Amino acid sequence: MTELILQALYSGVLQGGSYALIALGLALVFGTMKIINLAHGELVLLAAYIAYTVESASGLSPIFAIPVALIIVCMTAVIMYFLVSLIKTDRELNSLILTYGIGVILTNAILLIWSAEIKSTSSAWMQDAVVVGPLYSMRSEPLFFIISVLLMGGMWWWLSRSWYGRAVRAVAGNRDAARLMGIDPRRTEIVSFVIAGILASFAGVAIFSYGVIQPSLGHVLTIKAFIITVLAGIGSIPGVLVGALLLGVAEALTITLASSALQELVGMVLFLLVLFVLPNGLFGAAGRRG
Amino acid sequence: MIEVQGLRAGYGAINILWDVSISVRPGELTTIIGPNGAGKTTLLRAIMGLLPVSQGTIQLNDKPLSGIPTWKMPDLGVVMIPEGRMVFKDMTIEENLMLGAFTPKHRAGSRRQCDKAYDMFPRLRERRNQRAGTLSGGEAQMLAMGRGLMADPQVLIIDEPSLGLAPVVVNELFQTLGRLKAEGRTIILVEQSTHRAVGVADHVYLMQGGKVVLSQRAAEVDMEQLHELYFAH
Amino acid sequence: MKTGIIALLVLALAYIAVPLLLGQNNYVMSLIIASLIIGGIALAWALLGNLGGMVSFGHSAFFGVGAYVSALLTIEAGVPVMWGLLLGGVGAVVASAVMLPVLRLRGPYFALAILAYAHIFKIVAIEWSSVTGGSGGLSRIPAFPTVFGFDLAGKVGSYLIVLTLLVLFVLAYRAIRGSYYGIALRAMHDSEDATRVVGVNSTLLKAMMLFVSAFMTGVIGAFNVHYISFLEPDYAFNGVWVTLPIIAAIFGGYRTLLGPIAGALTVYLVDQLIFKNLISSGHQLILGALLVGMIIFSPRGLLPLLATGFRRKHAAT
Amino acid sequence: EEFLVGEQEPLTGALARVGTGMHEGIAVAVEVFNQTNGKHTIKVLTEDDESSPAKAIAAVEKLASQGVVAFTGGYGSNNIGPASDAANKLGLPYITSGGVDNGLVQRGYKTFFRINNTAGYQKAMVGVLGDMKVDSASIIYSTKEATAHLAQDVQKDLTAKGLKVGMHPFDPGISDFKPVVNKVRLIDKSDVILMVGYENDYVGILRAANVLKPDVNAMIGVWSLATPKMAADFPDLMPKVYGTALLPYPTKFNTDEGKAFYDAYKKLYNKDPDYLGQFGYVQSMLLFEAIARAADKGTVKQGGIAEELAKTDRNTLIGRVQFTEGDNLNFEHRMGQHQGDRIEIVWPVDTATAPMQYPGVPWK
Amino acid sequence: MLQLEALTVRFGGLTAVDGVTLTANRDEVLGLVGPNGAGKTTLFNAVSGLVQPSSGRIHFDNASLLNTPLHRRARMGIGRTFQVPQPLHELTVRENLLVAQRFGTGKVNEARIAEVLEFTNLASRADRNAATELALTELKALEIAKALCTDPKLLLLDEVLAGLETAGKRRFMTMLQELHKKFSVGILIIEHDIETISRLCDRVAALDFGRLISLGTPDEVFNDPEVVRSYTGAQS
Ligand SMILES: Nc1ncnc2c1ncn2[C@@H]1O[C@H](COP(=O)(O)OP(=O)(O)OP(=O)(O)O)[C@@H](O)[C@H]1O
Ligand SMILES: Nc1ncnc2c1ncn2[C@@H]1O[C@H](COP(=O)(O)OP(=O)(O)OP(=O)(O)O)[C@@H](O)[C@H]1O
Ligand SMILES: CC(C)C[C@H](N)C(=O)O
Ligand SMILES: [Mg+2]
Ligand SMILES: [Mg+2]
After folding, report:
1. Which residues form the ABC transporter domain (chain E) (predicted)?
2. Which of A37, B214, D215, D357 is packed most tightly, with the most Cβ within 10 A?
């Protein structure tokens, strides 16, 4: 029994690492611009499909797809920002619907390009088992866990210590006042989207390396990412990591101790609980109540 | 230093300013007074590039400001302290202050400037980690003032700084304005308390209904006459 | 006065001309019915958005609960189908009462909290199999009755039922919007504290709007289940029951009374009759693009866009 | 005389992959029928139901308005139910191999026919376990309708036979199967793992098993698993895995019909046929032949097609087909096993093309 | 009419209002002064129900308000304005007043609305959009008009005069004096301008760091050394 629970914890933590990577981009754009990018999951998925294409065309490990994914996904992210910036009124609400529409476009574009068939890596290296004492995982899992934690640490350092970090939050707070401070709002916002694109690229390659992808997955990823963002509390990067680990572990424990049919329930119940009990998330500042 | 010539501007289809011309000399404190809705704030916003100009020119040191985005203004040494509570609500007081020194050349000195702001408004130091959104009306006003001074601006444009401040603080504020002028800064001040504004000013403009109706050296201003003009509709 | 006449004309067209002209074409009728179903949800969704100031991503919860309640009551308790529609709506209201805590939430938090409920309801429908039949769903769902020799289960009959429901919804929406409650609700979005200090119980009003919206959606869900005689959790709580209505409502103009319905008819019919033939797989891509374009160029939707276009034309001539 | 037949199929949406497979088989049936029959020809009009029940109904109605005399196709009991319901209201026959839910035939429609059912899949799973002589099994199954039913039926059968059975339902949205497989490894400690799901589920389960390496002797799945495409896409996951299959791969068709099917398929799609194509082909062929017979008797418009279909008794690529109240009770599946790059039939023994490699799992 | 007993409001570690005991009557204009951040607005918020007191009691017409929901306080006769004007968005000026009246009093009385519009000089603006088409003076007038439409017994006015030009200020003061008599409402007003307060108020209460440091006639209070030190400073 202990072995079972240990393994569940371990799997949950590793899974949480990739959840964090997926959620971070969404949390960043949300925390800095008050925009929930409902197409973020599709961005991640796009990166995953690029990894697939690179792998099947070149036979190289999906890792080598990262540069290609970075270029394409970041370009897509910039186009998305461009569209968002065209919104004239009520940006918070309209961007929600706009990015939702972009998500629909991306999902269907992926469907057109890559068909509905499931794809998955054929890289044996990525899927080989790594055994640490009684704990098992695929090699890609700890690999991307480490990458995820590193990226997150870097992001955290950069956002909290850098002038840029302050600038994005200022723009979110009051555009005109930010401009009076000497901040170019468009530039800081584009940077946010590009960073979200970078994070999505890594996340996409990660999920392709140990999971199965299909066109309808994007939506699921977006929802997971949002749940984690709520758990974290707006604008908290450590919160994202903790929230993601919490979700990953809670899911793994539910599957192990109860039934996997209840897995999805866990995330949702956790989400509602945190909203009601800890309205500011685990680490966040105020702001979600009216 | 700042020359505004025949300016027309407004919000969308509504024009507010009608051929406004003012001239601000370096090192002087120029005050713009006038009743509510005269267009004072609108003029300041137009100078800062926050509003599109439909006619006329604005020049800084003989160079036109058209085409220069608002966010380049602090780099040119021009900072505006907006009216109302345009603070960053979700950020702490200290973060708000730091943003005042956002332009790269001011970043290095930001710590020192920050301490200066705290010295000026000790209340802010007590609250340095409080969210700006929860400040009282007057505290927010102090914060806006302190933040504007962070970039050590050559030209300071201030909109109704005394609004909502306790009398003691207003006294200090006007002393500060005097000191800033003495340091050689150019200041444009929009104020509702006419007496005090004219008291510190070198030059006075009176605006009404989107037009400049009086331009006079402060020393020559006859308060009686000014008030008559003020109330003549 | 003039709008009154136009409304009567449209109603006459909908009640008489459509059945007479298209009644024989099952395919076209089923497309129209399907788009009216979407339109009904879109209307309920827009009511919550426009009056309550709340964007919901979880209306499928009400749709599904309405469907299950009506199906179970008619199958198990022998309740007449027409009563089932009403009770389906009531069931959705009861379900929405569980959601009252989320009324404290704002914007996207509210939207996604409701979505979480929809997921939870779906899982309940799957796991509580002794009542709901689990993931297999329910079969042998009774169809609409035959009244005075007229088969309401047929295409024309079903069409008239759903059309009547929509007309009632629109009238109810209009009445609420015009009342003092409607005015207070409009004010509440951007100035809630200010509204409350003049005596408006904002929580209660918002709850009422949630109930009304849930009720309408539940009735539509119940209608659909008897119309299509099929029910399983995946279908009843499917995301399309909220995504299509949102697209339709935004497209038509969610701030207007008839925009959501007009949007649903346009979007659904154009999608099925045209886009589907252009790109068989992934034709929703065009819908997504339309939505994006609409938000950017006319965030208030199609009807207001047409209205300005109309006005401009008249001004020109 | 040319007859129009409607095909309602999920060509997009969640079921697009399988729907497309079926569709290919149907197209091949048209090709073969039109070349061999001589007297009548068939034209199939295809309508995409986008994997949604409402659209499936609309598709059937649209096709009916275009004058089709019968329907072939559909996938997923939840789409087939309402679609065949609509067909029944219109008085048009509907034949399928895409829905195994028992509720479909319990409706008692005279117009509804299907050539496969849960029982056939169940027999194959239970049968191969009998040959393996195992004492315990763990069933990992999707909570979707068809899979949950099948899993429960298999469980009943196995428990009745005295086996110890562990049940592990999973949600279709699950992404990591390790905790599930780990339960099998550490708690159940079963002899074999039965997988009842769809392609992505199999891949996930096999992945997890590959990592955790539970001490089992066989990995057995059902539909969508013993296909050449899976072997090609996931070479490291498939070795020795079992899945239902009717024919080995690469296959040699011995019958004339089989050869004709194979050639036509190869010609149209330039690849070897898989089981979905076979199903689509068989159901359509039976329908086309019934139409031809009804046409000869001049009863096409008087419900003759359904009557002729009900009388069907014929050996087909999937075995003998007869309809009892719309269901083909003869239907019995076979069990295939990935062996190298081939798929061999290993159960029942009398039709086996190779002995099963037991015990055997991908990671051993 | 309004009685505060040892009212205390804390935000985390900060005590914004600290044990204030104070009575406001219907027949007087009571001024509330104090340095920035002294807790004046917070006190208003506690009375109107926007924040929960941490301890102490609030009575209105001898009924405790502690468990009275915010919207019901309006019906009981407590009207308030906001330091930053908060018109009801999307509504016209008239609709603003309609809402205030319908929900603040339970009925609609067009004549009364006309009267209030006239009184606050907003009649010509009745059909303008309140949030986007009003100037500052008009917004301030609307704040008062809204509160009046709820038939208040007590008006809480938070810096309604701040930012107004001298003439405007004078007009508003006259208006306040008139409405105090005409509608017989008590007024509790926050204001930083000493002259205004002296002219308008019967009594003045001064707060500092949340505590009530002085209470009395304007003269008494503004000559109180503690008030001079913390608030008025040496007059320049
Ligand atoms: N965003 C806006 N849209 C439309 N009109 C506006 C807007 N802001 C201000 N106005 C109008 O422009 C006119 C001038 O306003 P402005 O704020 O410049 O006056 P002001 O002189 O600063 O007055 P105050 O002393 O009250 O601050 C007023 O009539 C006001 O109603
Ligand atoms: N939500 C809050 N969280 C933390 N502190 C708060 C909050 N609201 C108010 N405060 C603090 O409480 C103190 C009192 O604020 P309040 O707004 O009542 O002051 P005030 O007397 O109205 O001042 P002013 O004259 O400047 O408007 C201030 O120091 C303010 O920073
Ligand atoms: C064997 C398959 C055709 C079964 C199908 N998945 C169904 O839902 O019934
Ligand atoms: Mg101004
Ligand atoms: Mg205050």
Report:
1. 2-234
2. A37
